[in-house]
């Protein structure tokens, strides 16, 4: 985030009602990305496991929100300790923060910054869930989410965005979360699936998306919410940078969608709906780290490159045999890496920071820094997430029983099914269990 | 008494219904079906992964007919359903032992 670009902010900032309002709206927009993601993923799985997919994203809104208030904000954005983690007891339980206390060097209250950052923390573990579709115990997922944000997300957010974080000090540019969010989630997904293995029937059974309209709805909500994610990451809009970010978000996403469609038309013969949705998300991912440092034309290049790279990358799982169910690695890891490295090529030096990319006379310096950011976050998240998955698997178990996986995880894990297919007009209905049956209750009354 | 069953392309349903009404058929039963014939199904692509969809959507039309009308009815259905393209379907008839109209208890030809 732009939190340490304090030189551009006013010397003694005062609370700006406009920026505060803008940031609260941005926070709400980012919140909507998580249910959007739930639909994006939920439509891509089979009917029998679609509720579980929705729930794996949705529950993050519960778990991460509470942990963020309790200690997450403090770990990520508290006073730096050793460049790797933060701590501030006033942030614990958000208990010692004044209503008008401003976030360091900015014109918005600490509360607003905390809630904006919370939404990033919520969606990041939810992103991982797409790789684990159809086969993970919900209880194991809840535990993983709580552990993962604590051990991986909060520290990495501090490295990248916290004043004093080591990647931040190094000068790695990550405007809105290419490393901290997308590479982090994509690498974690890869780490976990290497431990838990493939879905039953991977490469043999058809695992077609059950509802592409839901996928499009989800992708649309993500795109919409992403304006808050990116344009809000300047933490105000006194100088127009947020507006540049908004423009770059739109054009990169458009370019990536068209690039993905063109690639698959050439390669597979059709312009597919899933390709349009996936390309858009790939573009959003790639412009996230880069949007504050490239021009709109640069954003088109970033989007187009990421669109093609991600379209190529989603096939890797079949070649290498790892089962990344919904292509979290192919879209978020590859898209995040592409966007973060392309900063080193396309940064114009003059918007978010002075750093110039290779194509703008900056030499290899920024590219090298970006590479350090990319690979350090990638390696840390991959290794720690794999260890975490291994430990959970050895204790409460990560996967559901094979028969549950085959018959569908929704009924077994959630006691619900997504759709009622009970014949014409819903004629064949399920009988309520006696303890909850309204009929039985009415009979009791009569007896009394 | 014969039961005529036709498995045909869904979009031909209206043509067949009209042809049967013109012929004087009073009622019919339609259900959704899926299957394949010699042409098999089609291929769908999701993020580059190709899936062969063997079972193609069809509709199944069932009509009861008197023995002397059955052959003609089969011809009516066949000519209404024909597009001369692959996947037009099949029509067959089988003997029926007895038919009862549930409301009145009438049997045989009276029940049609």
The outline of chain B comes out as elongated
User: Biggest sheet of chain B: strands side by side, in what order?
Assistant: 2-5-1-6
Strand content of chain A: under 5%
Secondary structure: helix percent of chain B = 10-25%
Estimated structural class of chain A: mainly alpha
Q: Would you identify the regions of chain A where 5 or more consecutive residues have pLDDT less than 50?
A: 2-7, 440-448
Strand content of chain B: 35-45%
Tell me the helix content of chain A.
55-70%
Distance between the termini of chain B: 10 Å
Which class do the helix and strand fractions of chain B yield? alpha+beta
Report the count of strand segments of chain A. 2
The end-to-end distance of chain A, rounded to whole angstroms, is 66 Å
The residue-averaged pLDDT of chain A reads 91
**Radius of gyration of chain A, rounded?**
23 Å
Describe the structure.
The complex is a heterodimer of chains A (448) and B (112). The radius of gyration of chain A is 23 Å and the shape is globular. Chain A has helices at residues 17-42, 50-77, 110-128, 138-161, 166-170, 178-196, 212-231, 241-268, 273-290, 296-313, 316-320, 328-346, 365-395, 402-407, 409-414, 438-447; strands at residues 79-81, 85-87. The model of chain A is unreliable at 2-7 and 440-448 (pLDDT under 50). Chain A has 16 helices and 2 strands. By secondary structure, chain A is mainly α. Chain A has a two-stranded antiparallel sheet with strand order 1-2. With 112 residues, chain B is of the alpha+beta class. Chain B contains 2 helices and 6 strands. Chain B has helices at residues 13-23, 67-81; strands spanning 2-8, 29-35, 42-46, 49-53, 56-65, 89-95. In chain B, strand 3 and strand 4 (49-53) form a beta hairpin. The longest helix of chain B is centred in the middle third of the chain and has 15 residues, at 67-81. In chain B, 21% of the residues are buried. The mean pLDDT of chain B is 91. The interface between A and B is medium-sized, with 18 and 9 residues. Chain B: It comes from Streptomyces racemochromogenes. Chain B: Homotrimer. Chain B: InterPro entries: N-reg_PII, N-reg_PII-like_a/b, N-reg_PII/ATP_PRibTrfase_C, N-reg_PII_urydylation_site. Chain B: Keywords: Nucleotide-binding, Phosphoprotein, Transcription, Transcription regulation. Chain B: This is Nitrogen regulatory protein P-II.
